[in-house]
């Protein structure tokens, strides 16, 4: 087990895939409220379960009586997911996998996961968000991503600011030292030609990959 690598179990959609197994293998786990249900999917036991438990039912509580719980009031200033992340960092996390971070019933929570991840990466943490079907990789100033994608897989680069010096290699639509205006859709729905490389000189962005989606091939 990698004691500094944590999976945060969140309330969104999660499908078991080989890539999800690889991302979470050997990690410690903390569940945020209803995210505990994903522990069974991953055949793992979290070491901690946190939240206000407003979306956890009696069946979930009965299934995980041995997991340490920390309860918080419903009227609080942060989300259950952010509490779980803070606990992981307190326990020594340097790498974080947000499992169940994408999609789900609450788009506001999904967007907050993106924003939280961007802030963490800017502070030096390694972060990936996943639903099993999709993976999101935040990156910021003076950074480079090397991502092993199968040929034909769809991916997009989402700019959360204007981007300067964006370079995308080994893709159907490559870019070199590109300036992407904030809000531009120029980098949506690209297609990997195999493992891709993405680098950025300035800005904040998320690469959203769909490794199993070859509809653009």
TrEMBL record:
Q: Does the keyword Oxidoreductase apply?
A: no
- Listed InterPro entries: Thi_PPkinase, Thiamin_PyroPKinase_B1-bd, TPK, TPK_catalytic, TPK_catalytic_sf
Residue span, Thiamin pyrophosphokinase thiamin-binding domain: 142-206
Any one Gene Ontology molecular-function term assigned to this protein's record: thiamine diphosphokinase activity
- Record EC number: 2.7.6.2
For this protein, the record's PANTHER family field holds: THIAMINE PYROPHOSPHOKINASE
List the protein's name: Thiamine diphosphokinase
Which species is the source of this protein?
Peteryoungia desertarenae
Its lineage reads: Bacteria, Pseudomonadati, Pseudomonadota, Alphaproteobacteria, Hyphomicrobiales
């Amino acid at each position: 087990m990698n004691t500094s690598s944590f999976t945060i179990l969140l309330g969104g959609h999660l499908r078991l895939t080989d890539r999800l197994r690889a991302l979470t293998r050997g990690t410690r786990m903390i569940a945020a409220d209803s995210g505990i249900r994903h522990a069974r999917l991953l055949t793992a036991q979290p070491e901690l379960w946190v939240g206000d438990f407003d979306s956890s039912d009696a069946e979930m509580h009965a299934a995980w009586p041995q997991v340490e719980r920390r309860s918080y009031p419903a009227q609080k200033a942060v989300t259950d997911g952010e509490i779980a992340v803070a606990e992981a960092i307190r326990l020594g996390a340097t790498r974080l996998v947000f499992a169940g971070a994408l999609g789900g019933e609450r788009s506001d929570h999904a967007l907050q996961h993106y924003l939280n991840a961007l802030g963490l990466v800017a502070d030096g943490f390694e972060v990936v968000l996943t639903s099993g079907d999709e993976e999101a990789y935040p990156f910021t100033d003076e950074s480079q991503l090397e991502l092993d994608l199968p040929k034909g897989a769809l991916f997009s680069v989402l700019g959360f600011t204007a981007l300067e010096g964006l370079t995308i290699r080994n893709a159907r639509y490559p870019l070199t030292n590109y300036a992407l205006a904030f809000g531009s859709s120029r980098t949506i729905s690209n297609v990997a030609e195999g493992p891709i490389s993405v680098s950025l000189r300035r800005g904040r962005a998320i690469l959203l990959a769909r490794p199993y989606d070859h509809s653009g091939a």
